[in-house]
Structures are given as C-alpha cells and as structure tokens.
Amino acid sequence: MRTARLQTLGARLVGLIGILALALTATASVLATTTTKKFTFDHEVTIGGTKVAGGDYSLVVDDAQVTVKRGNKVIVQAPAHWETRDAKPDSNSILYGTGNQVVEIRFAHQSEVLVIATP
Predict the structure, then answer these.
(1) In the chain, is it the N or the C terminus that has fewer CB atoms within a 10 Å radius of its CB?
(2) pTM for the full predicted model
(3) Average pLDDT over residues 41-47
C-alpha cells in the first residue's frame, strides 16, 4: 500500500514538473521581443560572412539573431545577442574585427549593444 502511494505521489510530481515546464516555456515566449533599429553603414561592411554595401538598413533583432534588411529585402541573417555596457555612447558606432567584419553595433544613448557572431 505504501508503494502505491509513493507511485501516485511520483506520478503527480512528474505531472506538476511538466506543467511548470510548459508555463516557463510560455513565459519565455512572451518575454522574447523583436526590436527593429534603423542603422546607416558609411561603407561596405561584412556581417556574418556576407558583404553589405554602405547605406541605410533596418536591423531586426529577435531571440538569437539579427536580420539586416533594405526595404523588404533580407540582405543577411546572423547570430546575435544584446549585451549591456556601462557607458552610453553619444552616437551610433561599430566595433570591427578583421576585414570590416562587424563585431558589435553601439546605439546612441543606449547601454545595450548588439553583439554579432563572427564566422
């Protein structure tokens, strides 16, 4: 009889853990946001291994990637994430790696910077 109670308790516990996991997944989905920023590249840059001509673009950041768009046309998608810095720059700026590879985009008056994975 005691074994049956333990099995029932175990089954309830597994069910409760499953419900909690679903609730946390739903909460994470609600908290995931998409951010769109306008950005001008003064010259040709490389993002995620793709060359991007200088000009005006929309940067759409969601979950773990950035989508670079010109109008409705997707130019490139690359893994990216937000990081918080102590300083807030006075103007938009870019941190480059080798070959004009964009490593980080900093936005004026914001402590969050967009860090882009390099191939």
Answers:
(1) N
(2) 0.71
(3) 97
